[in-house]
Amino acid sequence: MISSTDGAVTAAPLRTGFRWFQLAMGIVCMAMIANLQYGWTLFVDPIDAAHHWGRAAIQLAFTIFVVTETWLVPVEAWFVDKYGPRIVIMFGGVMIALSWVLNSYADSLTLLYAAAIVGGMGAGAVYGTCVGNALKWFPDRRGLAAGATAAGFGAGAALTIVPIATMIAASGYQSAFFTFGIGQGLIVFVLAFFIQPPRLSIPPKKKQLNLPQTKIDFTPPQVLRTPIFWVMYLVFVMVASGGLMTAAQIGPIAHDFKIADTPVTLAGFQMAALTFAISLDRIFDGFGRPFFGWVSDTIGREHTMFIAFGTAAVMLLTLSAYGHVPVVFVLATAVYFGVFGEIYSLFPATCGDTFGSKFATTNNGMLYTAKGTASLLVPLASVISAAYGWKAVFVVAVALNATAALMALFVIKPLRRSFILGKEAESTGTASGSAKTETA
């Protein structure tokens, strides 16, 4: 940053590589919290085998985790704005370690649920801070920056799925919880010392007509009063519910389809269908987030949403019809997560484009609570599957994704453009009126 003679802070040039360093640190932090969500499915059946609490009761811990993680993000974002990102991420590192340590000792559902709350607080602190920081450092590449940061969360579990599964089989799930919990938390705590925010808001560049970006910074209370925010929130919930259900239930689904331990060979690799599916899911999810973020920077947010949500509906329909075939199960879930994860890059980027950079961390945090709302449907999937089978669950998810795809193109797109242009016109009119008054 550069200071003028009167002490005012001016912009540092964007060509500096420091913002890319900040992006990299955020990605690694996100990778360290990924297992709290995406590795959870590996623990469900071992926990049930040890304590016989039932899948639905155990999966309630997953819902509690996601609700806590998402709904507290606006509060944690307030702490980021007041005290900076470093202290919030350090807090997150401590909490995610404590969460899995508690899981390793949990001998009751009460303690399991308490650990979920602790983990949700920690993961939300890291997630909201890192994504918000990326949006502030990269107003000119919001889709790519948010996607790359979210990719850490999406793909971070890919490197550790096999080691965790191996440790569970060899030493028990308690040992896996304890060892990986301490390791992940420690890495986040150390990396927190390197995270810094930009010293000022950098104005976005308006490059394309299909990528409108506001010139106004809207405060969180203003954002909550806009219809476009709630339409985006609804679509987020519709898409996230299917992905969270699949992420949490992929293990039980594979076991119910009787293919979990069936060997699958692809590209010279052979693994059990469930392990192969989860590993590929994390890789495709991690790749899809920055890829679709980059695509949205090029062709527009809503067009990218339409492509991704539509593809997700097709993959879920494929799983419903042919998921009992091991190779189809592996490939269809991989492609599904490849297009599902983009919600965590497109919605933050769209939020920043629509409401500005200054309050991007808090505004995106409010939108991110939609993930928590969607998580409330995850236990419902277990209930529906028990009564009607997994096909019924998939059909509901297909309908939600198909509807979301149409809403992105025919509702969000025109409404968002109308909002941005209307508010800028109001701002220009107000400024002109003030100027005339002063002249008079």
Automatic annotation (TrEMBL):
Phosphoprotein listed as a keyword: no
Keywords from the UniProt entry: Membrane, Transmembrane, Transmembrane helix
Domain of life: Bacteria
Coiled-coil annotated residue ranges, if any: none
Gene3D superfamilies the UniProt entry points to: MFS general substrate transporter like domains
A GO molecular-function annotation: oxalate transmembrane transporter activity
Residue ranges constituting the Major facilitator superfamily (MFS) profile domain according to the UniProt record: 1-416
Any single GO CC term annotated in Swiss-Prot or TrEMBL for this entry: membrane
SUPFAM superfamilies: MFS general substrate transporter
One Pfam family matching this protein: MFS_1
Transmembrane segments: 20-40, 60-80, 87-106, 112-132, 144-170, 176-195, 228-251, 305-322, 328-347, 368-388, 394-412
Name of the protein in its database record: Oxalate/formate MFS antiporter
Source organism of this protein record: Bradyrhizobium niftali
Species classification: Bacteria, Pseudomonadati, Pseudomonadota, Alphaproteobacteria, Hyphomicrobiales
This protein's encoding gene: oxlT
